[in-house]
Design brief:
The chain has 269 residues and is an all-alpha fold. It has one domain. Helices cover 81% and strands 0% of the residues. Helix 2 packs antiparallel against helix 5, helix 6 packs antiparallel against helix 8 and helix 12 packs antiparallel against helix 13. The relative contact order is 0.12.
């Protein structure tokens, strides 16, 4: 959720028109968090029985632990979604409202209910929803979309498979237990590591296409180079510690890259 907010904020700072209107800037941020919260909430609502069987979620998610009753949780989730779409539509424009609604619908229903249990490409296709924050933010600020938010979208889109597949390698038995066809379960660990390396290489190239300033370019080369090295090392080393290391670094990578985007946008003004 924090990364959703961060990627949306970076798009707003690159676009620039709301920097002198803090009320509207933070209204966009609220709309993004409500959108992400609704999608994430639906995911946990629909998967509460699965989450209760997985080691990484059974003691952390309130619906899985039974700390929260499903009915009030569902009402809260719906309120978040209605609030997000209404806020974007009334305060900004209906293009932003539509992209918010489609993001929620895609992640909550198409990805969670249909795609995730049926194909090992679930993370690749479903990752589109998690990458939409820059596009929604840009649409809210301008009433249109442009190349820049789609490049930000592609950075997050290509980042998602290495991030989640590295985690999936570490919790593979969980996915086997609940019969979720994640890539390591269906294609094996070696193919998963190879795909991680390929997507990381694609991410590196795409990150260099964004024209955000010299500081950003230097950060993209250094951070992306480290990411590539860790992905290559994971292929060669082929153990869980390397996968955990890549997973943890992927969070550092995306956070640092988008913080630099925001810093560069301020410097260049």
């Amino acid at each position: 959720m924090l990364l959703v907010g961060l990627t949306g904020a970076a798009a707003l700072m690159l676009e620039g028109s709301l920097l002198h209107d803090p009320l509207r800037f933070w209204a966009v941020m609220l709309g993004l968090m409500l959108t992400g919260g609704c999608a994430n909430g639906f995911n946990q609502y629909f998967e509460r029985e699965i989450d209760a069987q997985m080691g990484r979620t059974k003691n952390r998610r309130p619906l899985a632990t039974g700390a929260l009753n499903p009915t009030p949780a569902l009402l809260f989730i719906l309120a978040c979604g209605v609030g997000a779409v209404t806020l974007f539509g009334v305060m900004f424009n209906w293009l932003a409202a539509l992209t918010s609604f489609l993001t929620i619908a895609f992640y909550s229903f198409f990805y969670t209910l249909w795609l995730k249990p049926r194909t090992h490409l679930n993370i690749v296709i479903g990752g589109a929803a998690g990458a939409m924050a820059p596009v929604i933010a840009w649409a809210a600020a301008t009433g249109s979309v442009a190349l820049t938010p789609w490049l930000l979208f592609l950075i997050v889109f290509f980042w998602t498979p290495p991030h989640f597949w590295a985690l999936a390698l570490c919790v593979k038995k969980d996915y086997e237990r609940v019969k979720i066809p994640m890539l390591p379960v269906i294609k094996g660990d070696h193919e998963t590591r190879r795909q991680i390396l390929l997507y990381t290489a694609g991410l590196f190239v795409i990150s260099l296409l964004l024209h955000a300033g010299i500081l950003y370019l230097a950060a993209a080369v250094v951070l992306g180079g480290i990411f590539l090295y860790k992905a290559w090392k994971m292929v060669k080393q082929a153990d869980q510690s390397a996968a955990w290391g890549l997973f943890k670094y992927s969070i550092v990578y995306l956070t640092a890259l988008f913080v630099v985007i925001m810093a560069d946008s301020v410097i260049s003004r």
